[in-house]
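I have been asked to look over a protein record a colleague put together. Alongside the sequence sits a line of tokens, each denoting a local backbone shape. I have pasted the whole thing underneath without changing anything:
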Amino acid sequence: MELTSIGTPLAWGLTIGAVLLLLVLDFVITRRPHEVSMREAIGWSAFYIALPLAFGVWVWTAHGDQRGLEYYTGYLVEKTLSVDNLFVFMLLLAAFAVPKKLQQRVLLFGVAGALVLRAVFIALGAQLISSFSWAFLLFGLVLLATAVKMLADAIKGGEHVVEVSELRSVRLVRRFVPVTEDYRGTAMAVVENGRRALTPLALVVIAILAADIVFAVDSVPAVYGITGDPFLVFATNAFALLGLRALYFVLAGALSALVHLGFGLAAILGFIGVKLMLHWAHGLWEWVPVVPTLASLAVIVGILAVVICTSLWANRRERDREPDAVA
């Protein structure tokens, strides 16, 4: 996995410009709070899926099938990890009792913050990989540790637990700044009793940004396990995140059906972690095998297919048991 990039200054400029333009467009759309309809959510989700697919066609035709395969595999990994992120976002929005008409605004702040954090982590990761070969070993160990934690959570029941009062970011803010008891539209801060106070909207945004840091630690090493090109790493992260706001409202009801998603994510992260460690070992001992990108794609798609099938089977068994329990 050589750290060579297809990202020319023009490609970087156009891609970053397009991402910023889409973010501005999203902020304009959410400027007037409203409850998102399923039709609106599906329309934007389709757009944010078609866009990265079209971008991948350009990568494939302009830079060859190997780069195209790396891009699509990396995008699939990032999109899968973003689904798990939605679980945490869903719980945070529920814990803070965010009104439905403000939810997409909160999610957009989370996406914007995540993009900034991913860009920082991607730059640091690229510097580490180009300067120190052991960075692959470090990233591999991080992913393996995350996979073990996800597996443990899945075995316990696969439930994310978010206690607002226990969030360090929230406790720190409340220690120094007063917080209003209710939401004040899209305002983050207001003047109350002669003092400036934050609104609950500001707290939930802070909590989501804190969660974004954890997500970046997992996702950036994961995609570096697929491609060593910082440009493709940024593109896959950006496209996976941009569609997160609309995808949330499409999958809000369906996410609970993926009861085995935690097992699948643990398997994917563990696989990529082993792949990174094998790449590091191959640099020391040539006889150590490396995992081709096509094989990685096959493994990831296979894991996702198994998780979806077993989740549907488990849900069906649970429904079949309900009449017996009632009887």
The chain has a mean pLDDT of 80. Residues 9-322 form one domain.
